Amino acid sequence: MFTFTRDTTHHKEQTYWSGVFAMTLCVFVLIASEFMPVSLLTPIAVDLEVSEGLAGQGIAISGVLAVLTSLSLSTLAGNLNRKYLLLGMTALMALSATIVALASSYLIYMLGRALIGIAIGGFWSMSAATALRLVPQRLVPRALAIFNAGNALATVVAAPLGSYLGSVIGWRGAFFFLVPIAIVAFIWQCFSLPTMAVEQHARSGDSAARLLLRPAVAVGLLACGLFFMGQFSLFTYVRPFLETVTRVDIRTLSLILLTIGVAGFIGTLAIGSVLKKGLYFTLTAISLLMATIAVALILRGNHVWLVASLLGFWGLMATAAPTGWWTWIARTLPEDAEAGGGLMVAVIQLSIALGSTLGGLAFDHIGWQSTFALSGGLLIVAAGLTMLTSRKTHHAH
Question: What pTM did the predictor assign?
Answer without folding.
Answer: 0.75
